[in-house]
Each structure stands twice: as C-alpha cells, then as structure tokens.
Specification:
Radius of gyration: 18 Å
Oligomer: single chain
Helix content: 40-55%
Number of domains: 1
Strand content: 15-25%
Number of strands: 6
Order of helices and strands: EHEEEEHHHHEH
CATH architecture: 3-Layer(aba) Sandwich
Largest sheet: 4 strands, parallel
Shape: flat
CATH class: Alpha Beta
Length: 170
C-alpha cells in the first residue's frame, strides 16, 4: 500500500471527511493519500497493465474528464445513516453532560441535515457503482468502511502494524 485513494463519505460525518481521513493516513502512516469526491456518473477502471485505478466520468466529456488519480489502494468511506444518527445524538449528549465545552465539540459532530441527507442517500443510486468495485477487487486493495468508528479503528490498527514493522526485534 503506497498510494491510497479515499472516496466519501457523502456528506462528511462530523469531523471525519474524506479529506480528513486522507490527512490522517498521510500524517500518521506516511502514505501518499488523496480524496476523491463521489459524483453521479463516476466510473472507476483499472488503467493499462498496472494495477491502479483511474477515476473518470461517463458521459459526453469522457475523454476530457480523466482525473489524474492513480492508486494501488481504494478506501470507500460508505457510512450508513445509523452512523450519522449516532454521531448527532452523541453531540447532543455531550452538550447536555458537559455544557459549554460540549457545545464547542458539538460543532465537529454530524448535524441533523447530515442525518437527513444520509437517509435520503439510501433512496438514491450510489455515485460509485458496486459492480465497478467488484471488477476492480482483484486488481487493487479495496476497503469499505461503514462507520467513523470502524475507520478510526482501522487507522489505529494500521499504525500498530507500521510500528511493529519499524521496531527491530531483539
């Protein structure tokens, strides 16, 4: 895993956006990570003989819309509405228990509009087609994380793995 593409979440769940997760991967692990915004008509395809994904858009501007995004790992932050709901409720609970400090932290939590958008997103077609992902699974490392807690846990386990590799055994 050298270059990582992060897709989603849409909308960002509290303080965890795709950009923030890519920053955490770059800062804590030292990977070359970048964020891709899911958009309607998004097409993912393996490029040439190399095992890297290319991000393009389908439609009339297919040839001109090729993004310069190549990676060997694809992380899809596909959070369920339940994750947004829990984050929103945690913000209110923090406000009730901690007052002014909780109010400041609540600004980094999911808002009610994020919960509604996530619920509405379930009814809409995914911007990234699951069939596309299935065709790419054998060509690159693909991870789908379904909640912010799972994303942070995966990041922490990856940090531990990197730390174990770097420490020489006596």
């Amino acid at each position: 895993m050298r270059r990582v593409a992060v897709i989603g979440p849409t909308p960002s769940c509290g303080a965890l956006s795709g950009e923030r997760f890519a920053e955490l991967l770059s800062g804590r692990i030292g990977l070359d990570a970048f964020c891709l915004r899911p958009a309607p008509g998004l097409v993912l395809a393996a490029g040439g003989g190399a095992q890297v994904p290319l991000l393009t858009r389908s439609g009339r501007d297919y040839a001109s819309a090729i993004a310069h995004a190549r990676a060997d790992t694809l992380i899809w932050l596909r959070f369920s509405p339940r994750a947004y709901w829990r984050d929103w409720l945690a913000g209110w609970l923090d406000l009730l228990l901690n007052g002014k400090q909780g109010s400041r932290r609540r600004a980094y939590r999911a808002r009610l509009t994020d919960v509604v958008r996530a619920c509405a997103g379930v009814l809409q077609r995914d911007p990234v087609d699951s069939r596309q992902i299935e065709t790419l699974r054998h060509k690159l490392l693909f991870l789908e994380l379904s909640s912010p807690e799972q994303a942070y846990f995966w990041l922490k386990m990856l940090e531990e793995r990197v730390r174990e590799i770097e420490v020489p055994r006596a």
